[in-house]
Structure prediction request, 260 residues.
Amino acid sequence: MAPLNYYLVLSAVIFAIGVAGVIVRRNVIVILMSVELMLNAVNLTFLAFARSFGSMDGQVIVFFVMTVAAAEAVVGLAIIIALFRHRRSLDPREMQLLKW
Amino acid sequence: MTLFIILAVLTVVSSLLVIFQRNVVHSAVALVAALFFIAVLFLTLDAPMIGILQVLVYAGAIMVLFLFVIMLLNPAALEPRQIPWWTLGSAAALLLVFLLMPALLNTVAPRQAAPAGPGFGSPELLGQTLFGSFVLPFEIASVLLLVAIIGAVVLAKKES
Prediction:
């Protein structure tokens, strides 16, 4: 097993790629996929610390994160389908009904 | 160590492909690859159960759902690249990594972990922890999944 810091740096890089994806992409589905990428980077951190401290708690929390991610993906995609039905577009710039 | 570096490079490359591909389906396939490499990284951290769950739940269920929605909506054109946003996004990501780096390189946790105890990461120990000290969050998670199922059905239903 590689040292803990390597895993932390790798997961920071993956998280940053996810952040960049949310900022730069103009498609709500890809934005949702970038959020999944960020959640996975955090899971990697949890598992690296769990291994480092020899505690199972981190692995159980990853289990919960995956549950929440599944729920988030399902509800997010349902919202996207409902939005697409009204606006015929996946571009977040056109979803500005509440924008000041 | 060599395994970690190979996996890290593969994971970062496929993650970058997720945000650089202009076709949504290609992005989704790159994300499947990234999730799979992350699952193998989980295996190197003595978490076989979580690694298998990652492949089953993410690559198997969530990504199929994503691809299904992409096919259903059939987004027409490739999205155009907007240089200002790409500059801002890359700058934000680089800034985030450089701000996190000092904290990540000086952790209080033991750098080189002790050998894992017997059964560490096994389904048996995971289940005992889950139904021992985490039994209340587990029940709440089941309610959350129920809410998500009902919410998805209500949201995606055609308005009558």
Chain A touches chain B through 70 residues (CB under 8 Å). Chain A has one domain: 4-95.
